[in-house]
Amino acid sequence: VAGFLWWQGDKDRYNAAHSAMYEKNLNQLFKALRKEFNAPKAKMVVATLGQTNKDTASGNEKMIIDGMFAFAKAHKGEVTTVYTNPLSMGGASNGHYSGNAKTYMNVGLGMGKAMVELLGQSK
Length: 123
Description:
This protein is mainly alpha-helical. It has helices at 16-20, 22-36, 59-74, 101-121, and strands at 3-6, 43-47, 79-82. The longest helix has 21 residues, at 101-121.
């Protein structure tokens, strides 16, 4: 296993305690995945919620997006965060982006590109 992709956070935004622990929980998840898959050097790409604008986010959504970027910063060279707000073509994560396939394609391509870049750094 060379890496993991993580695009989640919608349900956590409805719970302040979960939102406040997002960075810590991502760290625990990363450690657990590496251990479970015996992949101690695996990379991780985290994607933000598409409806969340990082410049105007507040409350729980701000805690989650800040946690995602802080997690990547703490694991520079091993983790990166893809900011998906510009890639989202409408709707919100709790509505599955109104079923807009272009959103899923854009985020998937963005995450794939970010993983390729991370993997290229380790050579």
